[in-house]
Design brief:
The chain is of the alpha+beta class and 318 residues long. It folds into 3 domains: 3-91, Immunoglobulin-like, CATH 2.60.40; 120-213, no CATH class; 228-311. It is built from 6 helices and 15 strands. The protein has a 4-stranded antiparallel β-sheet. A 3-stranded antiparallel β-sheet has the order 4-1-6, with no helix packed on it. The longest helix has 32 residues, at 280-311.
Length: 318
Amino acid sequence: MLINVDFTLDSTAVNSAITGGSYDTIRVYESDTYTGSYVLSGTVDLVYGKTEYVYIAYGAALTNWYKISYYNSSTTAESVQSDPIQGTELDFGYDDVTYPVEYPLTSSEKTIVNRVRDILGDRPVLKRDFYDGSTYSSSLGTTTGDNDAYSRVSSDGYVYELEDRGWPLSITVAGTGFITLDNPIAQDYRYLVFSGSESVLTVTGTLEVYYLQFRFSDREIIEAYDRIDYIPGSAKVPTDSIPVSWYYLYARIKLLEKEFQYDAVKSATIADGDTRFSNERALGIRQDELDAKRKQLDDEIEEFIGSLMYSLEGVRID
């Protein structure tokens, strides 16, 4: 089970610890009982100006307790430990999560991601890629064996291409689980790049990957949201009056713009004899979706400004 441990720190204390050189790391300790012996579970980097932190405990029980302390990785100086707290279950619809989460979310970031996903209609779906090399057929035209999955293995055996875009939850090759971000490296939410002295993917081996399929990752959503410093068309609206829903909607627009630009770069028309393939229709659908969301935001801003003007009190001058 994955346990999400959220903790909020005092901004003044964090900033003073960093600028003064006292501490640079948060240590997280874990115990199976409130008053039990706490052992080091992991660390989180202290970041200037950041008050909300999250730590993911792998293979932990929901009943476990956690303490944190400030730590200096150079001098090994450490503060006293905090009072115990408990975490919440991080539910992916799959229990045996062993590959690290790409971007642990704080409580406030979870709210942002969930709201943007609701607008996008982009709820992650559990997927499984599997092949058994022992049943592989060299004739890719046959239905024998796991030819489709094996066809996504690079010729040198070090790269596997997921069937759909997503982030791994667990990766097992020939019975061996891979549990670190550096092997394999998940690139572009599509490719698993393995490293080592020998090729880990062979014709006679097996591969099983459970992963969450999505259109946009949690990291991409949070980055799009955090980069919003101005909402076009909202200049007449006081900053403290701008609804948070506009930020959710504009984050979606930024994501769709990025997706459209990426697809446009890859756009092509391929001719094979009398057969022609073009993704112009798909780009047209993307453009229509983007235009619709831009119009939705414009309409909401216009309606909001109209309501502000209507509520203004006037003075009659004869």
